[in-house]
Amino acid sequence: MTGRTRLTARLAAPTAALALVAASLSAAGAVAAPAAPAAALADPDISVANVQSHLTQLQSIATANGGNRYTGRSGYQASVDYVKGKLDAAGYSTQVQSFSTSSGTSYNVIATKVGSDPNSVVMAGGHLDSVSVGPGINDNGSGSAALLETAIAYAASGQTPKNTLRFGFWGAEELGLVGSKAYAASLPASEKDKIRLYLNFDMIGSPNPGYFVYDDNPAGNAVRDEITAWYDAKGIPWEYIDVQGRSDHAAFRSYGIPTAGIFSGAEGIKSSAQASKWGGTAGQAFDPCYHRSCDTTANLNATSLDRGADLIGALVFRHAAKDYGTSTPPPTGSNLLQNAGFESGAVAWTGTSGPITNNTSRPAHSGTWKAWLGGNGRTTSENIAQTITIPASATSASLSLWLRVDTAETGSTAYDTLKVQVTSGGATTTLATYSNVGATAAYAQKSLSLNAFRGKSITVKFLATEDSSLQTSFVVDDTAVLAG
User: Fold this and answer.
1) What integer pLDDT is reported at residue 55 of this predicted model?
2) Residues of the chain predicted below pLDDT 50
């Protein structure tokens, strides 16, 4: 995962006593198979031993290449070659996609098994690169290895998927989700519309683990609920987490594609309550070796790894066979805004020169670029805008954005403002106004209706104005206009 703190969200009530969880562990640390209803019997048992074997190979690659598998270095290239070789041998159609980064050329590995419905795609992915200082075995060898073994197990099952099944192993996640964004941006709108679901697995074997379920994409709530039901059936307590777009699912979520995923924890500290229900050590990080040289094969919890691999297998096998009801995907997967996360700089946007930036003084919501409007502490006005057309056939349309506001102003007077405006046919409508009042310096997602503009060409504008003293920064990221 990219290197910023994850924020845990709502706490789910445990559905079984901790004693039941402890009783399910074998002497070797694996999860004993609980009694399962008939519907769960089809879920595969992904071999944790095979997952560990892949991790041993990734560790050997890092050891032989300066201790890491970092983008642009020989260890990452060797990781790509290893994963592609395994997928080729399993019979997948594989593609290596190259793209440029600040650390040199990097690569995504894409593996596809065409289903009986080629126009309906289920995708699962995780990043393959490590940070520069270590081998990255939990972050994210664990997710990559479990995905790889799930792909091999599916191919060995002899099943033909109903939906086209696709696996993505992303490069340069640690540089700001560069690989997954490059892949998603390369797809024509018609291909994005085919993706029914994207599942993301980034760190599933943390040594002091928690069991977290992504809860940051309302479009993926049905799969989120499927994940929590799987944990419930195993008697494993879980918590929701809002990872705030800080892993590769963000590249797909920004286009309106449903996303979901699991996470076993990074640099966050395990609380006493979490240790009581999950075991492990309170007051210590879920992964004390996060982004460090000690993130080796010794930095894994076999039980967490086994559970994560089995859950990945269950989701992939189920959704490969799922009947989504029609071979014609709904049009809601297409973001009408171009360069909606600003990762290509000011491309497709007009307005004031300068607000679209990768300046690190204010964080992006995901990736490294964002629109930073205001923050000058003097009388100024700045704006960015983009013109789009909302299809007349749309039954609904909306604008969403992630907004972070920090200010030196105090009190309840709105000295500085950000207006979200739409201009159509010469008339300008202000959809919302945000100000220095109540600023918390934390990202929050905003959603605004565009139903009144269906069938019209519109210009979406973000307009910031500041008064003569004290700064207020309005940071906008991961915008989307979705019409369905």
Assistant:
1) 98
2) 4-41, 327-333
Structure tokens at 324: 């989504």
Q: What DSSP letter does each residue of 430-454 carry, written as one string?
A: EEEEEESTT--SS-EEEEEE-GGGT
| Predicted local distance difference test score (pLDDT) of residue 31 | 37
Active site residue 343: no
Residue 305 CA to residue 409 CA, distance in Å, equals 48
Q: Is the CA virtual torsion 424, 429, 432, 433 positive or negative?
A: positive
State the catalytic residue, choosing from 149, 173, 343, 466. 173
Residues of the chain by 3-state class (helix, strand, coil), percent to 5? 30, 30, 40
Q: Which residues are registered as beta bridge partners of 476?
A: 371, 403
Which of these, 318, 141, 286, lies nearest to 211 by C-alpha position?
A: 286
Residue 162 structure tokens: 């109903």
Contacts of 321 (CB under 8 A, 6+ apart): 159, 161, 162, 163
Partner residues linked to 448 by β-bridges: 399
Q: What pLDDT score does 334 carry?
A: 67
Name the 3-class secondary structure at 232. helix
Residue 261 near residue 312 (C-beta atoms within 8 A)? no
Residue 455: both structure tokens together = 């069938």
CATH 2.60.120.260 is the classification of domain 335-483 = yes
pLDDT of residue 27: 33
- Give, in order, the Cα–Cα distances in Å from 317 to each of 144, 324, 416: 17, 14, 52
pLDDT in the model for residue 1: 76
**154's tokens:** 């599916």
Which pair of tokens denotes residue 63? Answer: 């050891």
Cα distance between residue 191 and residue 119, in whole Å: 8
Residue 388 neighbours by CB under 8 Å, 6+ apart: 336, 337, 457, 458, 460, 481
Q: What is the domain class of 7-329 according to CATH?
A: alpha beta
What was the pLDDT predicted at 10? 38
Judge whether 197 and 220 are in contact, CB under 8 Å. Answer: yes
Write the pLDDT tens digit of every residue in 324-360: 875 444 344 468 998 899 988 888 899 999 999 999 9
CB contact at 8 A, 211 and 286: no
Distances (CA, A) of 7 to 191, 335, 423: 32, 26, 36
Domain ranges of the chain: 7-329, 335-483
Q: What is the dihedral of CA 169, 172, 176, 181, to 10 degrees?
A: -50
Give the span between the Cα atoms of 28 and 359, in whole angstroms.
48
The CA R_g of the chain, rounded to the nearest whole Å, is: 23
The predicted-structure confidence for 200-259, as pLDDT tens digits, reads as follows 999 999 999 999 999 988 788 899 999 999 999 999 999 999 887 789 999 998 888 999
